[in-house]
Amino acid sequence: MLLDAPPWLAHLFQRQRLPIPWAAVVRGAIACGPLLAAGLATGRAHLAVPAALGAMLAGVNDRPGTRRRGVVHIGLPALAGAFGMLLGSGLAPLGSGWWAVPVVCAVSLVSGAVSAAGPVSSAAGMQMLVAAIVGLGMPLPGTPWAKALCFLGGAGWLLLLRLLLSSRGRSAAGPLSGEREAVATVFDALADALAEVGRPGAEAARRQLTAALDRADEEVLLLRRLRVGRRRDGAALLEGFAAATALCEAAVALLWERRPLPVRICEGPRRLARAVRTGGRPGVLPAPASVTPACAAFHQALLDTAVAVAGAVPASGRPARTPTGTARTPVRPGHGYRRRVLGPAGQDYGLRVALCVTASAAVALALRADHWYWLPATAAFLVKPDLGPLFSRTVNRFAGTAAGVAAFGAASSVFAGVWWPVATAGFAGALLPVATRHFAFQTSVVTVLVLSFVHVGGDTEVAGLRLLDTSIACGIVLLVGHLPRLGDPRRRVRHRTAAAVRRTERYLRHVLATVPGQPAGQRPVLRRAAYTALAEARSAAGTASAELLPRGVPGCDWQPLLTTTERIVDATTAYAVHLAYGSRPPAAAVHRLARALAAAADTLDQARHLEEAVGRSAQALAAHLRHSGLEALAQDGTAGPCPHTGGHHRRAPVWAR
After folding, report:
1. Which range among 52-66, 150-164, 491-505, 547-561 shows the weakest confidence by mean pLDDT?
2. What's the CA gap between 363 and 359, in Å, rounded?
3. pLDDT tens-digit map of 609-638
4. Phi then psi dihedrals of residue 586, to 5 deg
5. Is the pLDDT of residue 552 over 80?
6. Which among 228, 55, 64 has a CA at the least distance from the CA of 150?
7. Which of 185, 400, 436, 531 is the most buried (most CB within 10 A)?
8. Which residues 6+ apart lie within 8 Å of 244 measured at CB?
9. 16-37 burial code (b ≥16 CB/10 A, e <16)
């Protein structure tokens, strides 16, 4: 049975269950087809091919999100792809030869290293590499600048469709409806997490809350960088998200207590969510009785959030302050872009991508120097370690290419003339947003699209050779990708986990150094950095668990270590709340826990027997957490007076109801 299959085999059949993005389907249907049609109609098919390629790659990055997020996720990779096309086309006049191998190697090394910085950088590195290979190897007339501009124009056409044909129109909440939805989702996720306190689904709900905060943080970051936050509506939304992050911090202390909460408590965040979506007022918000520091902190944060959501922009047009008198504008934690690219993770990514793609280019040049680009381009799509398990992607790539070649061959035998590839590209483009559910499906759709492009460009007899090239590329990737150093997926998880443990230690030490009653300062920044790093480490561990490990490489169970570290972050947040309400000062055992975190990170970086080091680190951190006294916060005594009001309860002002 499939349930009894090993993870590396079961992953072949896993697919995402997502709703059909109808707006993206419409965009895909009219993205590539009209570009090819315009090229055929004007006799400039050689320029339509790079334009359609740019639109196709932009369509791969056309994921759900706001318009501004779409500009970043589509526009930045498109710029990198245009640069790759310019570079490859500029060197193509030198002719096909072995000089192309070091060029491919250098671009692959940069592409792989940049991919370690994050998903947008990964997409940019991928497009730069693929466009450079296509520019080097595809025999298309035209100047390099014309090809690069056409590539960028094709991506810009899809981006224009994204801005015009968005799945969300301009609702009653105004032009920032997408960003409002992201912030409102945080309140909904918080309500779900509060409802699950003391139940089996509490941990999963808390992770959903973290994911919602990450998505909203990205949207708010774009508002600040694009200067939209200086406008009245943008400033109000920034203030609302700042209050939401403070409310989530206070809620973590409630989650840490693990006591089931009354159902009415969840109604407060849900009313806040509705108010953010509609731009209205939340009304009277229920709050728990302030019988513990966690309850008192949540009560106060809920009132502050009501003020921020309902009155962030008063008549003066200036952003309102929260009742504490300080504007809590969260600052996104730095992700250390240069450190990731030039550090161990970037080196591993770059080396793996460079070896696989360079080897594929060398084999392709030895076999057929006139159409060698398909083989290294296929390897580039396969070998990226952040895109999924290597074995699963390789098998699905071959199966998807075979299906795509068969579908294109069937279409070519049924239809005649020069216009049928346009209709084929339109139909495949419409399927592309749906095809992201499974890599084999996506590969088959992309294969049909690319074969339509090259057919319009003049290569009419290449379908069968593409399947042969794909099989060779799959073999090279499986061989090179499972070399002793490159094929050890534990190295990627090691880097991510060590970074997460160090960020947790930094957060804990900051809380220990905070004077009770002092403003939060950098605490929210460090907390978000720790949670984000843990989410990245857990994602990498999930991918590594589905890898086909090389012979003699034992697997690692990362989950106990990651779960314990997450509990330490939660306990630290609860500890910070208790300190703010006059609880006990930092204990020596908590300092020992901070030192244990530093030791665990050093062990992960230096250990030779990684599986043993991971197990020992998980056990040591769990023991220090038990003896630190942080877990006893759930049974801590009653709260003292609220530091802002001098009492236990406070109603929202009349204008906020």
Report:
1. 547-561
2. 6
3. 888 889 899 999 999 998 887 776 655 444
4. -55, 135
5. no
6. 55
7. 531
8. 183, 186, 187, 190, 216, 272, 305
9. eeeeebebbebbbbbbbbbbbb
